Amino acid sequence: MTQGPAPRSLSSETLSDLLARQRFGTLATVRQSGHPHLTTMLYSWDPEACIVRLSTTADRIKVKHLQRDPRAALHVQGGDVWSFAVAEGVAEASEITTVPGDAVGRELLAMIPTAAKPADEDAFLEQVAAELRIVIRLRVERLYGTALDINGQG
Fold it and tell me: What's the Rg (C-alpha) of the chain?
């Protein structure tokens, strides 16, 4: 049996670029039992501040998990099944956006890529306030990931 190539670690810059290219990842929080709770999330990466921002509603179980234990990680798949990045750190939940145009609503709006900005920002801000949305801010303390070079991919 022939053994293939070993996974190679990705540089901090490559990991940050991977996080910036993708929009969806799997957020892991810690259940009360100690088991992980995993959920697919749309996210926004701020490389300068080393913060992953995620939009959710205040009533979600992941928010309750983070209020009890703020440790979290976001797993993001690379351009192929052989590469990935993980951003781990401590997360905090923002206040609930309740007034259209408040600071949290503006933060949610800023998370949307320029090409996908809503045509009617006021309607967006009204919608997120009606949904009682919050921002989860994952302050990244560690980035890691690997790639496996198979058949010229990597």
Answer: 17
